[in-house]
């Protein structure tokens, strides 16, 4: 494909994304499947252009006079992001072959005029209605938080399955596969890979063997804050894709120790045999491998309102060698009656805007509306009301979202605390004293919690996706 044809394709993909609820990645894959003449370099160039445009969408729409179509956004990106002069942009819009048609007078005028002075929300790259929320939450740091959320390409975080292997073992596996993993600073079970070049994690032998799962470090931290340990009854009330279900399941399964994965060959042992082998009735056989240390498991229940989601978790559990009781949750919260006031831990990873993951899915930022945030807040309050009934006296409730917005996080936590005086806040310093958290996590995340029971993670403050967590204990 010519450079001009790639631009036309990018504009077409952007229009498809604008009229779809599918992730940009899915739309790009669909385009590639329907246009097999496009080579790998073409597909990469088109994807790069699409994501450049999406991340700078607010600024480009502003510069192009409010136009939101793919063609206008691509033209704006050539000027504002690539810094191309008008004559070069016109060469790419000559109307030849599969390239885009020539620029109109209005388009020429827009890219030669420049964007002018940008409003704060445009410069920050956020939807306009989100800015006030960020200013209240982050104060003078709001622009830094916005930039880190929208601009960079996020790394790939992995959770090592400690029921099958060790972090050091996986680190060696990935290094041998030509990758450069680094330890995550907060989760002791985490490894991080650079997004450039993007690794095909699912093709790795470590993934196929169930040694790793893709899971952002912030999501791992949320699992460890539950304090789940062997012997407990644990409920993942909103299982969704199952990432946290697998993390919790790992905590109750056999734990691989260093001794169990030692590479030195075991010394042979003599086993008695009636035929003999050493002249004294013994046959020399290899010494059996050391067995992993086994701790008593947890009773883990994972609920969701969509059966397909639960079905998709099953093969992941199997690959990881862990287990959970997967149950369909009724639309009105039915199906949990046998667990009322029985659970030691209930994790509520509530439905939310997903704004904490905008660095991975920037297209979602421009789909979100204020009414949706209000709807999600009301839903979160309702879900917490229902899920809290499962916590036994002395048990723990952990409310989590992958949102950056106060309208969901603090607003929902405030409503729950007002409606449920039988739940007392658990200081984060106490919750951080859990397995699989590093000493650095206890220090840094404890400082972020400032002595309270709520924690915010973000790309700017912790290098993770955006997460919110609040921890409670039933006292009556």
Written account of the structure:
There is one protein chain. This protein has 476 residues and is of the alpha/beta class. The chain is 41% helix and 14% strand. It has 20 helices and 14 strands. The strands form three sheets. Strands 5, 8, 9, 10, 11, 12, 13 and 14 form an eight-stranded mixed sheet that branches. It has a four-stranded antiparallel sheet with strand order 2-3-1-4. It has a two-stranded antiparallel ribbon with strand order 6-7. Helix 16 (370-388) links the parallel strand 10 (343-349) and strand 11 (391-401). The longest helix is centred in the C-terminal third of the chain and has 19 residues, at 370-388. It is globular, with a radius of gyration of 26 Å. The termini are far apart. Residues 259-296 have low confidence and may be disordered.
Layout of helices and strands:
Blueprint: H1 3-18, H2 24-34, H3 40-55, H4 57-63, H5 70-80, H6 86-91, H7 105-113, H8 120-124, H9 131-138, H10 142-150, E1 156-160, H11 167-176, E2 182-183, E3 190-193, H12 205-208, E4 212-214, H13 217-225, E5 233-236, H14 243-251, E6 269-272, E7 282-285, E8 299-304, H15 307-320, E9 325-328, E10 343-349, H16 370-388, E11 391-401, H17 409-419, E12 423-425, H18 428-431, H19 439-449, E13 454-457, H20 459-462, E14 467-474
Parallel strand pairs: 5-8, 5-10, 8-9, 10-11
Antiparallel strand pairs: 1-3, 1-4, 2-3, 6-7, 11-14, 12-14, 13-14
Helix pairs in contact: 1-2, 1-3, 1-5, 2-3, 4-5, 9-10, 13-14, 16-17
């Amino acid at each position: 494909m010519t450079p001009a044809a790639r631009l036309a394709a990018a504009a077409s993909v952007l229009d498809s994304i604008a009229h779809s609820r599918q992730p940009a990645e899915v739309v790009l894959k669909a385009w590639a499947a329907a246009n097999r003449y496009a080579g790998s370099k073409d597909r990469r160039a088109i994807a790069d252009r699409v994501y450049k445009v999406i991340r700078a969408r607010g600024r480009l729409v502003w510069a192009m006079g409010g136009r939101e179509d793919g063609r206008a956004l691509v033209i704006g990106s050539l000027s504002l992001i690539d810094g191309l002069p008008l004559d070069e942009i016109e060469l790419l819009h000559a109307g030849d072959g599969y390239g885009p048609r020539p620029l109109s007078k209005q388009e020429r005028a827009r890219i030669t005029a420049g964007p002018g002075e940008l409003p704060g929300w445009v410069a920050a790259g956020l939807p306009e209605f989100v800015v006030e929320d960020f200013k209240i939450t982050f104060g003078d740091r709001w622009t830094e938080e916005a930039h880190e959320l929208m601009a960079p390409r996020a790394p790939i975080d992995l959770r090592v399955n400690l029921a099958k292997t060790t972090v050091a073992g996986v680190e060696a596996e990935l290094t041998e596969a030509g990758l450069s993993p680094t330890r995550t600073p907060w989760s002791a079970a985490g490894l991080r890979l650079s997004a450039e070049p993007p690794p095909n994690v699912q093709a790795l032998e470590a993934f196929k063997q169930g040694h790793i799962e893709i899971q952002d470090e912030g999501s791992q931290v949320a699992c460890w804050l539950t304090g789940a340990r062997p012997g407990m009854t644990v409920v993942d009330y909103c299982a969704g894709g199952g990432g946290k279900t697998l993390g919790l399941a790992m905590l109750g399964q056999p734990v691989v120790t260093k001794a169990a994965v030692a590479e030195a060959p075991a010394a042979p042992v003599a086993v008695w045999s009636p035929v003999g082998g050493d002249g004294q009735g013994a046959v020399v056989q290899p010494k059996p491998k050391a067995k992993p240390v086994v701790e008593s498991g947890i009773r883990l229940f994972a609920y969701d309102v969509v059966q397909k989601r639960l079905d998709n978790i099953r093969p992941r559990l199997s690959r990881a060698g862990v287990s959970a009781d997967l149950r369909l949750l009724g639309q009105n919260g039915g199906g949990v009656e046998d667990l009322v006031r029985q659970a030691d831990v209930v994790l509520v990873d509530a439905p939310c805007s997903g704004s904490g993951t905008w660095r991975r899915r920037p297209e979602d930022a421009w789909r979100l509306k204020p009414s949706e945030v209000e709807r999600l807040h009301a839903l979160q309050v309702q879900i917490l009301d229902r899920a809290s009934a499962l916590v036994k006296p002395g048990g723990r409730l952990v409310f989590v979202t992958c949102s950056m917005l106060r309208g969901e996080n603090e607003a929902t936590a405030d409503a729950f605390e007002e409606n449920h005086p039988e739940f007392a806040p658990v200081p984060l310093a106490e919750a951080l004293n859990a397995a699989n958290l590093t000493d650095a996590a206890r220090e840094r995340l404890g400082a972020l919690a400032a002595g309270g029971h709520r924690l915010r993670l973000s790309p700017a403050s912790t290098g993770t996706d955006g997460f919110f967590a609040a921890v409670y204990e039933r006292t009556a």
